[in-house]
Structure formats: C-alpha cells, structure tokens
Amino acid sequence: MRHQLAFQVGPVAFRIGSAWRAPLDALASLYAAYPAPEGGICDFTVRLEPEKPWRRWLRPSVAIHGDYILPDAAPLPLAMGLLAAEMGMNLQMALGQKRFLLLHASSAEKDGRALIMTGESGAGKSTLAALLGERGWRLMGDEFALLDLDDGRLRPFPRAISLKNGAIRVMESEVAADRFGPALEGTPKGTIRHLRPNQAALAGMGDSAKPALILFPRFGEAEAVRPVGQAEIFMRLTQASTNYVSLGRAGFDALAGLVGSCPSAAIDYPDTDTAVGLVEDLWREAA
Amino acid sequence: MAAPRYIADPEGALACVALDGLSVLFHAPSGMTHIVAPPAPEILAALREGPADVAELLARLQAHYDFEDEIGNDVVAARLDELEQAGLVRRA
Fold first, then answer.
1. CA–CA separation, A70 vs A48, rounded Å?
2. B26-62 confidence digits (pLDDT tens)
C-alpha cells in the first residue's frame, strides 16, 4: 500500500494501509503514543482503498478491506477516512479474533480488578469507561473486552475511544484538547470524535485484571439498580460477543467462569455523574 | 405400540453449568448453547445410564433426586419432548 502505519493495542497489533495519506495522518496523531508491534509482527491488516481505481481522485470514497471483509459494507467519503480505519480495526477483531472471547463491552481497572460494562449502543458504556478513566480508574477499553480463554482474566484493549454526540461535550469538559481527534460530522451514528486514552491506560496496556463486577448501564432513565439473574447475564453476554459461537466449548467455559464468579447489576441513570456514583457504590459492595 | 425409548449423548458431549437455579448447557455435537430448568438437566444425566422410556426415566429420577415439586409421567414426557426438539435427546 502507498501509506502504512502499524501499532500495538494491548495484545493485538494492527497494520493499516491506505491509498490516501490523510486518514493515516489523523490515525498517526491519535495513536502517536502507542508502541510498535511486538517483534514487528501484525495480527490484523486493514486496507483503505478506493472502491474503483478512479475513485482515488474522483469523489474519493474509502472501501474497508483487510484480512476479513464484509462484502456489503458501504464505502465512506474520504473525509471519514479515520472512521473507516477505526471500523476496519473493529471488523478485523470481530471477525478474526480467536485468542480471546470478545465482548462488546467497555472495561476499566481499579485495585487490580476489572469492571465490565455492556449494553446496547447509546447505553453509555463508552462514556462511562472514558469518565472513569479520568477519575482514578485505568481505562482498559471502550469497545471490546477481551476475556482470556486460558486464565479467565481480562486483557486491556485501549483503542482510541469513540465518542458520539452528547458524550463528546461530556469528555471535552474533562480532558485536554490535544487528546481529541477531529470531529466527524454526519456519520451514520451522528457526530463522532475520537479520544486518545490517557498515559495510565497506555502504560498499562500489558497488564491484565481479574473481572470483579459486570454492569448493564442504561442512560436516560431515573436512577435505579436492578438485580439480573446469572442465566440472563450469560445469555446477554453471548449476544454481546462477536465470536462466542465460533469459539465453541472454549467460549462456553470462559463465559460460564466469568458469570459464575462476578457479581452484577443493571443500572439506570439520568446523567453521567449519577452513573459514576452508582458504579463506585457497587464497586465498594463487590470488594 | 411400545412406549418410545430415548437416549442422550454421552457425558463428554455436554457441558452443564448451574447458574441461579437454571443451567446453561453447551452441546458439543451441535455447538449450540441452551438454558434449561429442572428437571431437564437431571433427565439428561439419568438418560446416560442407558435408553429409557418415560416410566423408566421417572423411576430413575425419583431414585436419584429430590425435586421441590412432585413430578409425574406428564412432566417427564413434556420435558423429553422439548429436549428432543432442541436436539439434546433422541429416540433410541
């Protein structure tokens, strides 16, 4: 590829190739502090290529290719090349990751133990993890939680945090401007702005943690904490996993171990400060 | 007509974990995960002793387990029907 960039995020190394320079410049700025791939070997490759050769110049549009592809994925305009790169990395993980049980969840660490938060898009799991990461916790990841199939521990995967719409303002008031990528307006999910995790998250990207609490946050409701039965948690997490089915027995054992060993709750919250308070209360109870 | 007899896969084909009074099962031959309630896990365990019809199975269950609610042939037949549809038991 004409332009290339490679970096390590937790246990996974990515190589991003692009026919254009601009998306990689934006990506290089967000991932400047990330280490080079261990041993120079990459796990996944993402390629940002024109849909047709002439679309490199003429109304440039970025098709996401790589080791694993979705044949029906629509190309994005070049202005959203950074988003295409991020989506490409998500896609490689979702379709190709076999070493870990992949949960669509955010996670944060405190005192050597990990909090896992999962929920539908818009539930606030990314925002909450990002906020906790600035308030005494170590952000482990905002998009995927990686459960180690061998020891049941959670491995960090602190990619750039994908903030959407209202969450952008929440984090802009917490974090210095130089950690943000450009605001990408008019995406299928509204405005998206990426945030580079802080130094503690990057320095700790090799440090796994034992899962200690599973929460199902839901934004926009009156404050409430509700119990969730373990069998329901198990099924919700199978639905939140992109590779549970393909892992077979290993995935079942890892998930059963997680659910059987962790307290959990569903939390409803009207604003992020309330949510952080609820998380801290439940964390103390789980200790 | 003789009552149908049922068999289940051997123990290694099924992983069963109890969670809050329910059980999650991983069925290796199909790769499917199921959630079941009592007495389904007990029926699967009892069938590993060998093929059985509803009456024989009920006798095994009553010998080995102490259920909170009394179970009869109708309950065992209904659960067997569901387990057969789920692919967890089959006719011998």
1. 13
2. 999 999 999 999 999 999 999 999 999 999 999 999 9
pLDDT digits (tens, 9 = 90+) for A84-93: 999 999 999 9
Partnered with residue A80 across adjacent β-strands are: none
Domain coordinates in residue numbering, chain A: 3-96, 100-286
Restricting to A residues 87-126, those with a Cβ less than 8 Å away from any Cβ of B are: none
In whole angstroms, how large is the CA radius of gyration of chain A? 19
DSSP SS3 for B40: helix
User: B41 and B16 in contact (C-beta within 8 Å)?
Assistant: yes
- Classify residue A169 as exposed, middle or buried by CB count within 10 Å of its CB (0-12, 13-18, 19+): exposed
Q: Is A40 left (phi over 0), alpha (psi -120 to 50) or beta?
A: left
Q: Is the ipTM of this complex over 0.90?
A: no
Is A252 in contact with B24 (Cβ distance < 8 A)? yes
What residue segments make up the domains of chain B, in order of their start?
A: 6-91
Contact (CB<8Å) B19/A249 = no
Per-residue tokens: A107? 């996670």
CA distance A237 to chain B (A): 12
Q: What is the three-state SS of A136-184?
A: CCEEEECCEEEEECCCCCEECCCCCEEEECHHHHHHHCCCCHHHEEEEE
- Percent helix, strand and coil across chain A, each to the nearest 5: 35, 35, 30
Which residues in chain A have their CB less than 8 angstroms from residue B24's CB?
231, 234, 252, 256
Is some CB atom of chain B closer than 8 A to the CB atom of A231? Answer: yes
**Residue type at A49?**
E
What is the second-level CATH architecture of the domain B6-91?
Alpha-Beta Complex (3.90)
pTM for the structure as a whole? 0.91
Cβ-nearest to B35 among A235, A244, A252: A235
